[in-house]
Amino acid sequence: MLDNINFLLIREIVSSVLIIMGVIFMLISSIGLLRFPDFYIRMSAITKGATLGLGLILTGMGIYFNEPDMLLKVLLIIGFTFLTSPVAAHVIGRTAVRNKIPFWGPTDLEEFKDYLRKEHSNHRDHERDNKHL
Amino acid sequence: MKTFIVHFLIAFFGSYVYFKYGDPLVPYNAIWAVLVASFIMFLLWLTSPFYHRAYFHKLPQAISLFVYFLKELVVANFRVAYDILTPNYRMNPAVVAVPLTVSTDMEITLLATIITLTPGSLMIDVSADRKYIYMHTLYVKDNDMEAAKQEVKDGFERRILKLTR
Prior knowledge:
Chain A: Keywords: Membrane, Transmembrane, Transmembrane helix. By secondary structure, chain A is mainly alpha-helical.
């Protein structure tokens, strides 16, 4: 019974489905990067779509190549990507707020006003740096 | 956490060595490798009450947090994908100040990472007194900020608190 199953075919189908889903997620988030109205929304589209897409593509690759070494590397890459990409997004978002990148018109900033006022009056580093240049 | 890392490494390299140098009963593929690693983890978990009682209770909660996170990740990705592909924006972005119950560095980092990885929400900053986190979120229904906060507090924060306290 088990001898009749074509494992290579099953592996190929499963990994193809995963890789195609990952590519579609990445494509959609790239379109989002072009379409969305402001910096913050664009960034939340691209970081997440790219992270999930990368995870799916690498999982598909690990299943296709079917070797212990490959699976080890794939899992490590996925783990480190999931750890580092939110940190990068956080730092970029905070830098954008400090540099007064505007929010999209309908964004509700009611609870953020105090923070913005404090941040913009305290931190004039970027202006000073620009003058220096 | 330390126990989990040690167990995970033992399980991973155990299954690695089993398939690489041992004489496996089953043909190698990704599913069997994961199953063997999980089996070793399960055996180690059964022995854990003898030296680390809390770990015995916390592993199921960690798994539930992980599964909930994966579900949220996929669901929210589809929601953002739908918004990208249809001509009109359904989103109603806002920056909300979520009051924190979690207090240690580890918990805040975990919460912030999970929030940033969920599409449609982005951490901007933690307030100086660690009472609030500022979260840029895309979907606030009917301008109801309290509901958006409650979603984070009931979903992720409650599970993280269960895991770490």
